[in-house]
Amino acid sequence: MDGSVAISTGTTTTWSGSPTASWDNGAPTSAMIAVISADYSEVADINACSLTVNNNAIVTIPSGNVISLFGGLTVESGSSFVLNSNAVLLQDGTTNQNSGNITVNRSSQDLMRLDYTMWSSPVEGQVLASFSPLTMANRFYTYSSSGNVYTAIANTNSFTVGQGYLIRMPDNHPTSPTAWNGAFIGKPNSGTITIGL
User: Fold this and answer.
1) C-alpha 15 chain-centroid distance
2) 191-196: long-range contacts, CB 8 A cutoff, minimum separation 24
3) Distances (CA, A) of 146 to 149, 150, 151, 196
4) Region of poorest pLDDT, from 6-15, 20-29, 109-118
5) Quick one: CA torsion of 181, 188, 66, 84, rounded to 10 degrees?
6) What pLDDT score was predicted for residue 94?
7) How many other CB atoms are found less than 10 A from the CB of residue 47?
8) How, if at all, do strands 66-69 and 46-48 pair?
9) Is 119 in contact with 181 (CB distance < 8 Å)?
10) Exposed/middle/buried for 181, CB within 10 Å: 0-12, 13-18, 19+?
11) Residue of 145, 137, 188, 185 lying closest to 164 (CA atoms)
12) Whether the Cβ atoms of residue 183 and residue 103 lie closer than 8 Å to each other
């Protein structure tokens, strides 16, 4: 016995949208490879081994739905994958097997113009200023555990994976309590993420 284990996936099921919008080999399961090759916005969870979005498909996952993958998410050039606020991409595994960019829309609690809230990016490479472009440049902060204080950070920096940032509401935000909608754009984070304090 050599201690190795072979893991094989089952068949592939494809959402092609033709002639009717449906999966050609039944709804995906955790042992199946899922491929979305036509526009998709179903109010349904997806549970698959991996997911590929191709053929210029526009995928929008509605609020409340969960995409559960054992492996990676691949979004090919020309296609798009959008998670609306309160939709979730959940991945097992310890390494990031993802490729291509996604958009993750998120809404804050009801806040007023001078309020702050904490954000952490679910994607790689998201620049702070691009996430909240109308927040004053000196109103982005990171937490310093050694001094137990928040320290200003340049808004030209990118979010560090797994780290939270204190960001003031944009200067054009209403003075009455209102949710703010932001969009994270980049390759989705996955795997084990460790942040030292």
Assistant:
1) 21
2) 191/91, 191/93, 191/94, 191/95, 191/96, 192/94, 193/161, 193/162, 194/162, 195/160, 195/162, 195/163
3) 8, 10, 11, 11
4) 6-15
5) 20
6) 66
7) 17
8) parallel
9) no
10) exposed
11) 145
12) yes
Return the amino acid letter for 64. G
Residues in the chain: 197
> Tell me: the pLDDT tens digits for 142-181?
998 889 999 999 999 999 999 999 999 999 999 999 999 9
**Nearest residue to 129 (alpha-carbon basis) of 152, 156, 108, 151:** 156
1, pLDDT greater than 50: no
| Strand spans (E) along 37-144 | 46-48, 50-53, 58-61, 66-69, 73-75, 80-83, 88-91, 102-107, 116-119, 140-144
Q: Whole-angstrom Cα distance, residue 157 to residue 132?
A: 12
Order of strands, sheet of 33-36, starting from the edge strand that comes earlier in the sequence: 12-15, 33-36, 50-53, 73-75
In tens, the pLDDT along 43-84 reads 999 999 999 999 999 999 999 999 999 999 999 999 999 999
Of the candidates 70, 96, 105, the one whose C-alpha atom is nearest the C-alpha of residue 192 is 96
> Which residue, chain included where needed, has tokens 């090919």?
76
| Nearest CA among 50, 35, 46, 29 for reference residue 97 | 50
